[in-house]
């Protein structure tokens, strides 16, 4: 029997950048944050900020590391591994920046120097809504380009951006089941039945495993490394069960949206679905 589900989505809304320029700050410009400011950001998000290089860089030139290169080579085609790596996308073409002749391919000669390409320079490996807010506000303060990555499944390449700060939501793996979900604002006693609440980084394989253990079914997709609470459902969410129960978005009960302003959190949006 089909059971409805709820998605718990951290969506960040940045305020207008302080600069009057439409261009984002770049690393060679004086507006770029100092090492101390990056360190301060790291402290505010509990040590979850890292500097990023393309994953294949350990196989080339001065960065060559035999053990690390072997590990990268072994995982090169592993979609789950790629989803969790700040320095990788799901497809190599979105890691490269051909206009600047910057690539970092695993098959290139060992003496090849790897360019950064479209890989972000820093990644905030967020674990909480507060981490997201602080990273977004930092980007706004310093007029930085932001790239949001969960699994990297974006055919338009929006999970990567050159010279950017990445917010990586892939580590947010909370899954919570409730026996009778009550949407915010629902009349007292008007529950929606069994539901599951997902954090932003839960992929479809993790979702399917969890619901199978509870002997319930959800409407979701066939590519198991896609994140459930993200672009998949925001785009509708096609499913092999679509002819039976509609799109994944038709079965969502509520989204919790967190703004970049820590003092203002939007009230969750609730949608009652057909049973």
Multimeric state: single chain
Low-confidence runs of at least 5 consecutive residues = 1-20, 263-275
Give me the count of strands.
9
- Helix/strand order: EHEHHEHEEEEHHHEE
How many helices? The count is: 7
Distance between the termini: 10 Å
Strand content: 5-15%
Shape: globular
Give the strand line-up of the largest sheet: 2-3-5-4
- Characterize the biggest β-sheet: 4 strands, mixed
**Rounded Rg:** 20 Å
Q: Which percent range fits the helix content?
A: 10-25%
Average per-residue pLDDT, rounded, comes to 87
Structural class: alpha/beta
Layout of SSEs?
Layout: E1 6-7, H1 35-44, E2 49-51, H2 66-75, H3 79-84, E3 122-125, H4 129-141, E4 145-149, E5 164-168, E6 175-178, E7 195-198, H5 204-213, H6 228-234, H7 242-245, E8 254-255, E9 269-270
Parallel strand pairs: 1-7, 3-5, 4-5
Antiparallel strand pairs: 2-3, 6-7, 8-9
Task: Describe the protein.
It contains 7 helices and 9 strands, in the order βαβααβαββββαααββ. The protein is α/β, with parallel strands linked by helices. It has a 4-stranded mixed β-sheet with strand order 2-3-5-4, covered by helices on one side. The longest helix has 13 residues, at 129-141. It is globular, with a radius of gyration of 20 Å. It starts with 5 loop residues before the first strand and ends in a 5-residue tail after the last strand. The model is unreliable at 1-20 and 263-275 (pLDDT under 50).
Brief account:
The chain has 275 residues and is an alpha/beta fold. It contains 7 helices and 9 strands.
